[in-house]
Amino acid sequence: MQGSWQVKSLVAALATIGIGSGLTGCGGGGSDVGTSTGVVVGSYFQNAKVCLDENNNAVCDANEFSTRSDAQGRFTLPVANVPVVAEIGTDATRLDPDTGTASAVTDKLVFRAPAGNTAVLSALTTLVVAEMDGGASLADARSTVAGRLGVDGAKLMGDYNTETDSLTRSQLLAQGNNAIQTIAATVKTAGSDLKGGMGKTLTAKAVDSKVLYVWTQVGADDTTPFSKVSITGSSSAVALNADPVKGKVADATTYTVSDSSNGSPVSAGALYARAITTAATCPSITVDGVAQPMAVRAPAITQVDSNGQYSTGSKSVPVKADFAVLTCEFRIPDTARSAIVNGQALKLLNSSTALNRIVVIGDTGCRIKGPTAYTNGAGGDPLQDCTDDRAWPYKRIAAAAASFNPDLVIHNGDIHYREGTPVGVETPAGVAGTGKNEDFLQQKGLTPTITYGWAAWEADFFKPTGALLSAAPWAITRGNHESCFRAATGWFHFLDPRPFPAATSAAKEPKYSPTYDPSTCSDYIDPVAITLKDLQIVLLDNSGLQDDPGVGKNQGWTHGDHIRTARQLNALANLSASKDPTKVTWIVTHKPLFAYTGGTGAATPRTWQYQKAIAASGVNGVETYAGGNGSLPANTQMLHAGHIHGWQMISHPAASNLPTSFLIGVSGDTLEAGFMFDSATGAPFAPANFGTAITSGVWPWLGAKAALWFGSLAQSLPDAFSTSPIVNANDPAKARITDFGFVVFDRIPGTTNWTSTFYDMDRKKIRACTTVGKRTRCDG
Questions:
Q1: Do the strands 535-539 and 584-588 form a parallel or antiparallel pair, or are they unpaired?
Q2: Which of 47, 280, 496, 634 is the most interior residue, by most CB within 10 Å?
Q3: Does 285 score more than 90 pLDDT?
Q4: Please, which residues have CB within 8 angstroms of residue 377's CB and are 6 or more apart in sequence?
Q5: Which residues of 11-29 are buried (b: 16+ CB within 10 A; e: fewer)?
Q6: Any bridge partners for residue 320, and if so which?
Q7: What CA–CA distance (Å, rounded) separates 705 from 390?
């Protein structure tokens, strides 16, 4: 390496080619110099201090030549065969090239690039330099980082904002965002030896390969795993789980309700770090520079009873499922400034955090459901090719969602879909195989993942989620696919927000029972509410409620389950955050309160028992079959749900005081054939102009009265509606939804109002909406 640079000669030389402002430095040396340009990436950073790191200490020292990046992150330096450093302080701004918007940098960052490869400084090039500090060559360091992140090594050192392949760009953006979190945490805690600190946190040596996954999620500060509200009996002769006569039970039917919560079945939410490991002990978590042990949430266990209905055709004889991994947990203090597990910094939030960007996904799993799937190519359940990232696009969707660098990820439930090997049925049309679905699954290598055990959970969720898992904290609600006669064991091990049921006794391991044992596995858990500055997020488990009049499918279902939900909602409505007019509440459920889907002969709501929870009973305020007298929190702005595999927005008139309902169930599993059905034939049908307002309770494109909401809600019909695009909209035999995707909610600055954009798997905009107060309007 050549000696130091002399500032006077350097400035003079640069001035001859029109470069000079913002350059500083001192020292001795020659005067013959050329220049090179580069860019600070991730998105683009303006006003970053960029310097020649002559002593390779990861710091821009006072005697080292430096300049500042411009509005597009570009910089110019003299040519020198030395590493380059970018110090990105809180006086810098971050430009999003997709939107053209700039935001302030809130945590100091330091990026590095190796000598001879200084055209791009990014979080990813910083990881490469950290490996080189340990003695690796550039080629080996790049290979190590690319393998660890699961990205293309050839694209690792470039400007990924300009990448043309949508999946590659999304993956690089997402991993870059995650690396930025770890770099920010390292800068906070490394002290005077930043280079040494990076070696401890940014390299492969800092990563224990036995720790498979790390994330944060909203959890409950509570000791009770299952709901405190139990529906225990009937005061009439009608059994709680009897088939209703002609679709209903007498309105006067009431129920005995056991409520051990003193009227408040709601838990306060907090942020929890979780990890999954194959080791015998949990990893440590470093909070504000101090290492602390994580606790065991759920032990590794094998041969757990699970339902054999979809794999053997019998639900009376359980099949075994294995969970040979340890799940670990740590409650993160509200005052924490940084947290790192296994080399991954975790994005934190607390009661003073203002969320500005939220990603929402739902119904993400790959559908393999048998043994009735595709009987001669018709009927049964569709079979997805889980190895094709367009046939089952959750991997693409997760990467694209992570690339938006959200503050929070909401999942509306239904995660596990690999339920059974279809036996002896024909291959669906268009799928190569040897004539049997079971042969197709074996050829694709999918058979080992068809279980209720860990292999399916990893394949369906953890592995394809990729960088999104650590990109931001998660707020996850339970879907009906995670019920006790399906994938509840994995749900309680890994993702349930409440304490693990068997935390104090192995005998309480949540497992399938043909006769349903609610003491070990319950289909009902109580809500968790967390307030993040002016936004209250509520996780409400309504996965056990029935869609339509009739007997529910979940084990333990009763006609009185809407009363449990009503009591939960009333308890939520009484929270101080729910009454605060300066705050808004979002309620996250799996099943929607307001949504339309196809039915026999007409569009139908499929929201029967949930709507009954907030419907008036009509019997002097007494809880009845007809209504639970529940109330939504007064400041409820939005309802988020999935269950129906599409996207919808439903907004009601201001006089109704009802919140906007967003249906977001488009993130992986097979899409609906079409939301609207022809009123005469029952065939799928939809118009080309989806933005048409609903007036007088009439769907303009059907010329028939809209399906009404239930009970007392029937007086409040929507006045605005938008749905996923449906191709072949004028052909009832071919109409179908085509767009998988996710939704990004962005706060309108200085307000509690939001814009929301529905993107497809390639980050292409499908719909855009604006919510002001409780009312929403969309562009189509």
A1: parallel
A2: 496
A3: yes
A4: 426, 428, 429
A5: bebbeeeebeeebbbeeee
A6: 305
A7: 37
- Look at 182 and 238; give whichever has higher pLDDT: 182
Give the three-class secondary structure for 35. strand
DSSP code of residue 458: I
Between 377 and 616, name the one with better pLDDT: 616
User: What SS3 class is residue 8?
Assistant: helix
Tokens of 520: 């070990």
Cβ of 504: how many Cβ atoms within 10 Å? 10
Encoded tokens for 286: 């470093």
Q: Which residues of 35-50 are buried (b: 16+ CB within 10 A; e: fewer)?
A: eeebbbbbbbbbbbbb
Question: CA neighbours within 13 Å on the CB side: how many for 673?
Answer: 18
Using alpha carbons, select from 86, 91, 85 the residue that is nearest to residue 106: 91
User: Which two three-digit tokens encode residue 267?
Assistant: 């838990």
Instruction: Average the pLDDT over 515-519 and give the result.
Output: 88
8 Å CB contact between 310 and 371: yes
Q: Is residue 530 over pLDDT 90?
A: yes
What type of residue is 303?
Q
Mean pLDDT lowest for which of 255-259, 439-443, 597-601? 597-601
The 3-state DSSP class for residue 641 equals strand
Query: From the centroid of its chain, how far is CA 545?
Result: 23
How confident is residue 243, by pLDDT bands cut at 50, 70 and 90?
very low
Helix count and strand count (H, E) for the chain: 15, 42
Backbone angles phi, psi at 575, to 5 degrees: -70, 145
End-to-end CA distance of the chain: 60
Residues constituting the chain: 780
d(CA 477, CA 410): 8
Determine phi and psi for 640, rounding to 5 degrees: -115, 135
- Strand arrangement of the beta sheet that strand 74-78 belongs to: 74-78, 35-40, 120-121
Write out the two tokens for 445.
């290598």
Neighbours of 705 (CB within 10 A): 14
CA distance 689 to 698: 15
C-alpha span between 244 and 233 (Å, rounded): 16
Q: Tell me: the pLDDT tens digits for 596-618?
A: 775 444 556 778 889 989 988 77
- H/E stretch holding 437: helix 437-443
pTM of the model: 0.89
Q: Which range (390-394, 444-448, 701-705) has the least confidence? A: 701-705
d(CA 264, CA 110): 47
Name the residue with tokens 């002609």.
246
Hey, is 14 helix, strand or coil? helix
Q: Which amino acid is at 702?
A: L
Nearest to 202 by CA among 89, 316, 299, 111: 111
Those residues whose C-beta lies under 8 Å from the C-beta of residue 512, and which sit 6 or more positions away, are 305, 306, 307, 318, 452, 484, 485, 488, 489, 521
Distance, in Å, from the CA atom of 355 to the CA atom of 747, rounded to the nearest integer, reads 8
Rounded-to-integer distance, Cα 542 and Cα 554, Å: 11
Q: Are 27 and 62 in contact (CB under 8 A)?
A: no
The position carrying tokens 């497809």 is 760
Q: What one-letter code names the amino acid at 68?
A: R
The DSSP secondary-structure symbol of 728 reads T
Is the Cβ–Cβ distance between 42 and 88 less than 8 Å? no
Among 596, 613, 625, 631, which residue's Cα sits nearest to residue 708?
A: 596
Contact (CB, 8 A) for 624 and 253:
yes
In 3-state terms the chain splits into helix, strand, coil percentages (rounded to 5) of: 20, 25, 55
DSSP string, 224-269: --S-SEEEEEESSSS-TTSPPBTTB--TT--EEEEETTTT---EEE
| 732: its two tokens | 């009832």
